[in-house]
Amino acid sequence: MQSRTPATRTSGRPRSAEADAAILAATREALVELGWSKLTLGDVAMRAGVAKTTLYRRWSGKNELVVDAVAELFDELVLPDRGSLAADIEGVVLQFAAILARPEAASGLMAVVAESTRDDALRERIRSSIVERQKRLVLEGRARAQTRGELPPETDPEETVRTVDLIFDVVAGAVVHRTLVSGRAADEEWVRDFTALLLGGLGAEARQP
Amino acid sequence: MQSRTPATRTSGRPRSAEADAAILAATREALVELGWSKLTLGDVAMRAGVAKTTLYRRWSGKNELVVDAVAELFDELVLPDRGSLAADIEGVVLQFAAILARPEAASGLMAVVAESTRDDALRERIRSSIVERQKRLVLEGRARAQTRGELPPETDPEETVRTVDLIFDVVAGAVVHRTLVSGRAADEEWVRDFTALLLGGLGAEARQP
Amino acid sequence: MQSRTPATRTSGRPRSAEADAAILAATREALVELGWSKLTLGDVAMRAGVAKTTLYRRWSGKNELVVDAVAELFDELVLPDRGSLAADIEGVVLQFAAILARPEAASGLMAVVAESTRDDALRERIRSSIVERQKRLVLEGRARAQTRGELPPETDPEETVRTVDLIFDVVAGAVVHRTLVSGRAADEEWVRDFTALLLGGLGAEARQP
Amino acid sequence: MQSRTPATRTSGRPRSAEADAAILAATREALVELGWSKLTLGDVAMRAGVAKTTLYRRWSGKNELVVDAVAELFDELVLPDRGSLAADIEGVVLQFAAILARPEAASGLMAVVAESTRDDALRERIRSSIVERQKRLVLEGRARAQTRGELPPETDPEETVRTVDLIFDVVAGAVVHRTLVSGRAADEEWVRDFTALLLGGLGAEARQP
DNA sequence: ACCTAAGCGAGACGGTACGTCTGGTCTTTCT
DNA sequence: AGAAAGACCAGACGTACCGTCTCGCTTAGGT
What we know:
Four copies of one chain form a homotetramer.
Chain A: H1 17-34, H2 41-48, H3 52-58, H4 62-74, H5 85-100, H6 103-116, H7 120-148, H8 157-181, H9 188-207
Helix pairs in contact in A: 1-2, 1-4, 1-6, 4-6, 4-7, 5-7, 5-8, 5-9, 6-7
Chain A binds a DNA duplex through helix 2 and helix 3.
């Protein structure tokens, strides 16, 4: 989560482990009720039953706190085994859409992405805590499809990385855009259309090297 | 842009047209230098050589102002005629990526999208000022491809709308995600890969009704 | 009151005489409702059904306007003939107290006096419009008392001026202080006590040159 | 044994005692330079080297602040022992006039009095902080004069209160009116005349029950 | 059983920006 | 030329948070 305290803690009172959890939970609660821009750290501290100093001792500011609070939400994504690549993709995309439809995810995620355009450390934190962390789903899905014979075994490892990245950007980007920018639900019908488009593209790409 | 005063203004000093332009330009300038979160309306007013009251008389807050300032950026997108659908798409996607790479676009756009998750009026303003406004590119490209015979003429109009929306979400979403979330440039190589994926998907979709 | 050029107006639209009266009346009305510090010239203009520019064309600011509006209130003071000096004084002091008890007088008068401590032109305007204008009451009362034989005829004119000034400061000051600072009504009992004190002092003074 | 301190403040950082003094001093300084109407709390805070919030944490607004700043000025009044009642009065009146001649006193005092005509809490604050606080001078002077045999011992206590109040209104009112409204100095000559008037009145009053 | 160093709740602190209001001025059109 | 209307610049208002800083108190591990 937060890469804190690599060094040995020798003396003094240890930091409260409960406080960490309470603060992150309070942050998500505040995101739901207030959204990112009206969320204040003083309010989060109060909700968590914690002093502001305790919060600042652990996170350097609102952005870092929100990244950590939001990142946890995406850990609940799992790749369901629904029997076919298409069905698997549809399943995970629907889960992703469901998370994005939750106000704490949408408001928080977009805001920190916006902030990250001017803060490289923040961008890196988002990449490692959220993006790279969830690429496991693409890799897992690919592997499963190869086992099933739906996709050919990979040959060029570099090519594979490029394709995984592309797929991830297309999937995550399309769902986010549909949900937050176009402002319409990524419902089953849309997910079916989208998955057909994606698989068609992948098949075609696979056919013409 | 801002739908102001459709009614006739007869008496009193008329609003300065220069002020409007100066404020929007100053807003983009401030977005470049400061980003969304550190942009203050007082600072924008100062840059524009305008009093804060003049600014607040026209826009109700930071979000509305930034939407209008950013929306203008996307009006410069044009669909180049490069001879084939693939080349046309690559061309416009590259243009889109170039705009998104500009700091005033990235920071401002993501931030107002984040805010719009808690403000329906703002979401609608974004949709009408930015999203719907640029769907013209998809429609134009489709028409041109049909003229060339690259795409079959549309039969079901409802189906057409759904496909246009899908394409728009996929294109815009993928480029945004690549650029802002993954934090890597949407360069020519990536655009070629992406276009291939998209056209493959469309072709496959067209083949299997 | 306002020393404006009564000189020849040759061309153009003549100034509205009604506007002057409306503005002063609106000023007093606003003083009653809002007090000096919350009175705004924009509000006065609106109440008077007049544009702000019209108001500024006639008065240079809030202070000048309020002085003129308040000065008119004191013109209604008259010296009643109640048969004796003591009774005359009591009568006029009660009138004065009654005016001061009106909120437009109290709030406005004290405020412009406060302002006048830093604005010589304003102090002079107050002196000529209010103070000197009402000294007529002291002079008149003195003359009447001399006719009655209650006071000896004046001998030294310089001495007379000094006494008149002193009396005026004592009378006006005591009533103002009682009413506004001590915050208690200058009622008949108090006025009787005060008048006794004043006449006693004058008699004693008269006896010992 | 029960603690006498009501609402002891135990936790949290204690308020800075220096800040209070610095703010009141800065207020008087600003009154001298700017007068009441141009004094801004932001400016006072800056002069005191204090944040605006610190100021607002202690005082609810400009009026309350100025009352406290001005009240301190009058604490330096003392009743000198000059051997006779007349001389004592002259001495204290001259001191009072000297304080009123200072711009911070004049501008501030009159302004808050003006404001107090529309704000009962403020009027009460003025009464208790300034007026009642300085009545000590009248009581002390009276006692000393009785010791000397210049005034008869008091008989009716209610009558005494009424007389003290009357004297205070007459003295304070006359000096204020002379200084601020008539706009002339309360110099030694005037004070001598005034004291003669006052003592004459008191003597006459004493003689005729 | 003490010592000591860090953590903790509380809340004051110096700042910055907010969005609103007012003071005066300027620019329209109408009278 | 004056008036009504209202936009304009300038700047103070009182509030809300920021991130930091004292306070006095708690809570552990090392001695």
